[in-house]
Amino acid sequence: MVHYEVSRYTVSVNREGAGCGHVRAAFLTDLHNSTWGSRYELLLDAIDLEDPDLILVGGDMITAVPGKTTDFAEELMADLAARYPVYYACGNHEYRLRLYPETYGELYKHYFAALKKFGIIFLADRHALTVVNGVRLSIFGYNIRRRYYKRFRKEILLPEDMREVLGDPDPDAVNILLAHNPKYMETYLDWGADLTLCGHNHGGIVRLPGGIGAIDPDLNILSKRSKGRYSRDGKTCIVSAGLGEHSIKVRINNPRELVMLDICAGMKQRQ
């Protein structure tokens, strides 16, 4: 039995040039090859029931393990791409495959060649423009460097560092940023994303009263940014608790989470 919840968020952006309409997106992150049913059929059913216009993937759909394949994630992504447009950004596990070919061999090339074959838009330090239901979307995928995942230390990441890699947000679009690690959400918001989507913290493993996560993958204790919505100056960051488990296969008061987004441009929020 898979214990999960569907979290729904509405995000409104009023910007001339972005158009007027409503877009529904599913945000998937941190599956880590975890099954939903015998394979992943329950996850597909849950997504289909929500009827999204597109899928946004925030990374760590795989777990980087030497000698293992990416077949499970490839099958899931093929099925998703047959149903919906899919935009995929790296998490630290996908990025690890790229950094250490001496450990993981050709897994990175193999996996992302498969995604390309399925028609998935892979966003590694790049963006894609699309128009959905009359709304102009600019979707960015930020490949967060390895040093920004170090435990017990927070490196400095400035908006200028992001601009060197991604350029500036589009002034005539709803700007969506896929950035796996929420540790730097202030920088993402300062860069200018209307909506930033993160994962990585797995909801804090154990959810305590007051929306506090007991511990995150960086071994931060009592994290207040392991799950949920964070807003500032009209910008929004949403952190998902993720679709699976990794090294600590425990969730207490912290079900797996499918995040659904209702993005409203130039219109009142959908009720």
Q: Estimate the mean pLDDT confidence.
A: 92
Cα distance spanning the termini: 31 Å
Q: What CATH first level would be assigned?
A: Alpha Beta
Order of helices and strands: EEHEHEHHHEEEHEHEEEEEEE
- β-strand amount: 25-35%
Task: List segments where confidence is low: pLDDT < 50 over at least 5 consecutive residues.
Answer: none
Tell me the number of structural domains: 1
- What general outline do the C-alpha atoms trace? globular
- Give the tally of β-strands: 15
CATH architecture: 4-Layer Sandwich
Structural class: alpha/beta
Rounded radius of gyration (Å): 17 Å
Query: How many DSSP helices?
Result: 7
Q: Strand order within the widest sheet?
A: 1-15-2-3-4-5
CATH topology: Purple Acid Phosphatase, chain A, domain 2
SSE diagram, text form:
Elements: E1 4-13, E2 21-28, H1 41-50, E3 54-57, H2 71-83, E4 86-88, H3 92-99, H4 101-104, H5 107-118, E5 121-122, E6 126-132, E7 135-141, H6 159-166, E8 174-178, H7 185-191, E9 195-198, E10 207-208, E11 212-215, E12 221-223, E13 228-232, E14 235-239, E15 256-265
Parallel strand pairs: 1-15, 2-3, 3-4, 4-5, 7-8, 8-9, 9-14
Antiparallel strand pairs: 2-15, 6-7, 10-11, 11-12, 13-14
Helix pairs in contact: 2-5, 6-7
Write out key terms for the chains shown.
271 residues, Purple Acid Phosphatase, chain A, domain 2, six-stranded mixed beta sheet, 7 helices
